[in-house]
Amino acid sequence: MHGKHKVVSSVLVIVFSLVAGLAVAAGEQKVALNAGNAGKGASGTAVIVDKGGGQKGVTITAKGLKPDSVYTAWLVNMEPKMGMAGLGEGDYSLKSDNKGDASYSATIGSADLSKWQLIELAYHPSGDPKNMKEPMNTALIGKLQM
């Protein structure tokens, strides 16, 4: 009887562990980022997680970008009118490594994030993320599903 009890306990621990893992995964959203006009051959993912307290964490990983280049992360609306805002703080910038890989993380309020339709990485040919005179060069873009 003691051996059966130990097996049942082990099975319950495994089941509860799986359920807990599913609960964590359910609070996570993955957004595929597809190549735009300045990102031929590039791909990426934005992972959005609930950080609690009305905050969401957004982590972008990208590969196939132009090596050693500067990008900025944006939230974009196309309808009912065009609008955009930087994702995170500072100049919203990230730099790809010599292989064209890059990552970026930011925290945003859940209510703020829910106002946006798209997430975008913009390429800055000048290397200056603050240069807003250069045209918006979309490297990666993905649709947010809130």
Explain what the structure shows:
With 146 residues, the protein is an alpha+beta fold. Helix content is 20%, strand content 44%. It contains 2 helices and 9 strands; from the N terminus they run αβββββββαββ. Strands 1, 2, 3, 4, 5, 6, 7, 8 and 9 form a 9-stranded antiparallel beta sheet that branches. The longest helix has 25 residues, at 2-26.
Determine the strand fraction and express it as a percent band.
35-45%
Output mean pLDDT.
84
Largest sheet: 9 strands, antiparallel
Overall outline: globular
Which bin fits the share of residues in helices?
10-25%
Rg, rounded, reads 20 Å
Number of strand segments: 9
The oligomeric state of the chains shown is: single chain
Distance between the termini: 51 Å
In short, what is this structure?
This protein has 146 residues and is an alpha+beta fold. The protein is 20% helix and 44% strand.
Q: What is the fold's blueprint, element by element?
A:
Layout: H1 2-26, E1 28-35, E2 43-52, E3 55-63, E4 70-77, E5 83-86, E6 93-95, E7 102-109, H2 110-113, E8 118-124, E9 137-143
Antiparallel strand pairs: 1-2, 1-9, 2-3, 3-7, 4-5, 4-6, 4-8, 8-9
